[in-house]
Amino acid sequence: MSPEFTAIMMMTFFVLGAIMIVQGGVGFMQSNLVLLDTNSKLAQTTIFSVAAFMFVAGISVHFTGSSNTAFLKGQLAQTSRCELESEAANPSARGGSTGVIGRQIVACMQKSGFDWIDQAPLCREAPMATNGYCYQSASWFGRAITNAQLAFN
Q: Which partner for 129 in 21, 102, 114, 142 could form a disulfide, CB atoms 3.0-4.6 Å apart?
């Protein structure tokens, strides 16, 4: 299963889960079972809003950190694969100042669907071709998920 399909399925399940939480929460509040024995719409809305926020925050953390949607982890792993391929193809260029390996890593990452972005905050610390944080997905969806993962990182 591709990461994009997995992410779309997770979003679908998230929406379905949110609908189920809303339906269940409203039904529970209307029955006034335990602590919600109040006629105040403001109190019920506040309790429901807090519960909904906790649900959305929890599912967001899971969504951005799940191994099935490991966009950032995949990007870092691809950088390592490109580095390995470039060093294996040019063993005499290791540690040299020619920049051959660096250029090949950037080219390999571009073939894999990543653009070189040296203005990223984690790239400014070490702007080199082997730094996986110096790349950005060429697709808008991959960029959005990776940026969300970086926000929780």
A: 102
Task: Give tens-digit pLDDT for 81-108.
Answer: 999 999 888 887 777 677 888 899 999 9
Let me know if 12 is exposed, middle or buried by CB neighbors in 10 A (0-12, 13-18, 19+): exposed
pTM above 0.85, yes or no: no
Query: 């969504």: which residue's tokens?
Result: 63
Domain end call among 69, 87, 105: 69
Residues 33 and 90 in one domain: no
Question: CB–CB of 137/114 below 8 Å?
Answer: yes
Q: Which residues pair with 115 in a beta bridge?
A: 136
- For 20, counting Cβ atoms within 10 Å of its Cβ (0-12 exposed, 13-18 middle, 19+ buried), the class is exposed
Q: Which domain holds residue 23?
A: 3-69
**Would residue 118 count as lying in a domain?**
yes
Distances (CA, A) of 62 to 71, 127, 136, 144: 13, 30, 22, 15
Are 53 and 109 spatial neighbours (Cβ–Cβ below 8 Å)? Answer: no
Does 10 share its domain with 48?
Answer: yes
